[in-house]
Predict the structure.
Amino acid sequence: MTRKLSYLIQPLFFSVLLTGLLSFAALSLEAQTQLGVMGGVSLYSGDLSPKEFGVYFEEVRPAFGVFARFELGRAAALRVGVNGASVEGDDARHGREDRGLAFRSRITEFSLVGELNLFKIGAARNRGLVPYLFGGVAVFRFNPEAPFDGDYIELQPLGTEGQGLPNYEDPYRLTQFAVPMGVGVKVLLSEQLTLGLEFGGRMLFTDYLDDVSNVEVNYFDVLEGNGELAARLSRPTVEDPTADTSYRRGGQYNDWYYVGGVSLAFRIGGHNRGVQSGRGIGCPTF
């Protein structure tokens, strides 16, 4: 109970802390503020992907978010946001029926990113295009599940790779840090409205987004220590476990997830002193 409560409190605390710090920074720097919404897609890449950083459109799922952007000048901005997304992977889609693994997971992400405006295309003060790069830090909550008998089973409590047993790793945490990074373009519609298009990946510090890693597992260790259900979901297609008691479920690729979409941001009060003029941005205005 205590562990589950800590998993819920950590992202909430992190989000409140970031919001407070950014609000203080915005007031101190008299930054222009925008509030926005985002709608788009999320994708997964990892041990259940045939190749590294594979993007498979049959596994695209919806994503959404809200954010606040604090413009620190014409060339840079800070953004705090909350995203909701989902990811999934299935060996059956990639010719790996022999392994038979599958998962899905909902993701809640709290992020703080910096935006670097590269240049502005368009001479009008309140119109134009502004490509940008972004990068920062995030904390996210996930919970992989696997299909079983017409329903879905939470995988982390089972210990499908022997987590919690002697000589195995501890259970992985469902709240983790990530590094978001990517590219985008802002379409300046007016002094108050900005349309955005963005796509970015999340470099993770866990290989268990899909509950699958590259550690060596002994089938009978899982069966005797964590139970029959954990063993069945660890090796769903096994017929004779005595023929090959040790195995590795995953490969060398680390897990990533990606979020991309379209956003609409509304400026809150005041006159814009941000990217609209195009002056001071890294490259000349066209």
Remarks:
- Helices lie at 2-29, 219-226, 228-234.
- The mean pLDDT is 84.
